[in-house]
């Protein structure tokens, strides 16, 4: 049984000092009464070095929130996967809906980024999710399948061992309206089908499928025991150590 993964997505929040103080609090709470999960924090680029240093000697992972698809070059303002490895990042979030919708990242761009991250030894948390309009039109499964198939097209069979999928319905992100266990179970089952069809039963069954979208301490417990939920990607509620750890502790019961 794979241990669940709970990732805090801090987005564009926090000075170096604030990020360091947040991870210190997370470490302290985790030592006092551990959540039996693997934890990771996706800090802004500017705080990655400080956060990595603060987490030395712990098992908490450090993730970036995005990267470019080339290792270097004339790409003003971008950060490459090689650079992420250089600062000790273990993983990177790719295809987040804010990247897709605000910064117009296409499925093809996400695929290129995913390939580049894996080539550089960085694990990937690949986000997929439908908009409210797509859900209302009954296109959820179709959209998720397309996003996965394009992103995973060029990945070698064993590449899936370095990828987790995060189902993040766009309408649930930052809105306070989480998807229901029934909605989540249905989409996660679909994601599993796509993975096993693409990578075979054994490899396709191994990777964790996280849920993200308005996960809070007061709604996380039933989501944590939902079929095929292998962890959470937490935005707003990960900015306070107490709420982040109490969400992660919901897996202690499952
Ligand atoms: P939220 O964000 O928990 O604030 O809804 C989740 C995410 O964007 O990863």
Judged by helices, strands and strand pairing, the structural class is alpha/beta
How do the strands of the widest beta sheet line up side by side? 1-2-3-4-5-6-7-8
In the CATH hierarchy, what is the architecture at level 2?
A: Alpha-Beta Barrel
Unreliable spans: none
Mean pLDDT: 97
Question: What's the helix and strand layout?
Answer:
Elements: E1 5-9, H1 16-32, E2 38-42, H2 48-54, E3 61-64, H3 81-86, E4 91-94, H4 97-102, H5 107-119, E5 123-128, H6 132-136, H7 140-152, E6 163-167, H8 181-199, H9 201-206, E7 209-212, H10 220-224, E8 231-234, H11 241-249
Helix pairs in contact: 1-2, 1-11, 5-7, 7-8
Offer a concise description of the structure:
With 254 residues, the chain is α/β, with parallel strands linked by helices. The chain has helices at 16-32, 48-54, 81-86, 97-102, 107-119, 132-136, 140-152, 181-199, 201-206, 220-224, 241-249, and strands spanning 5-9, 38-42, 61-64, 91-94, 123-128, 163-167, 209-212, 231-234. The protein has an eight-stranded parallel barrel, surrounded by five helices.
């Amino acid at each position: 049984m794979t241990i669940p993964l709970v990732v805090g997505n801090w987005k564009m929040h926090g000075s170096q000092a604030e990020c360091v103080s947040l991870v210190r609090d997370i470490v302290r709470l985790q030592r006092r009464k551990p959540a039996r999960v693997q934890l990771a924090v996706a800090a802004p680029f500017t705080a990655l070095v400080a956060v990595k240093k603060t987490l030395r000697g712990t098992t908490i992972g450090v993730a970036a929130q995005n990267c470019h698809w080339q290792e270097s070059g004339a790409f003003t303002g971008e950060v490459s996967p090689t650079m992420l490895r250089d600062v000790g990042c273990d993983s990177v979030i790719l295809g987040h809906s804010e990247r897709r919708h605000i910064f117009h990242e296409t499925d093809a761009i996400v695929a290129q980024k995913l390939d580049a991250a894996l080539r550089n030894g960085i694990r990937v948390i690949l986000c997929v999710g439908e908009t409210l309009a797509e859900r209302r039109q009954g296109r959820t499964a179709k959209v998720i399948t397309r996003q996965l198939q394009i992103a995973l097209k060029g990945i070698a069979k064993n590449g899936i061992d370095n990828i987790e999928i995060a189902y993040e319905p766009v309408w649930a992100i930052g809105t306070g309206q989480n998807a229901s266990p029934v909605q989540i179970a249905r989409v996660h089952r679909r994601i599993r089908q796509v993975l096993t069809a693409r990578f075979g039963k054994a490899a396709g069954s191994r990777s964790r499928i996280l849920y993200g979208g308005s996960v809070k301490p007061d709604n996380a417990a039933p989501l944590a025991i939902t079929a095929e939920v292998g962890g959470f990607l937490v935005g707003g509620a990960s900015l306070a150590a107490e709420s982040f750890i109490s969400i992660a502790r919901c897996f202690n019961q499952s």
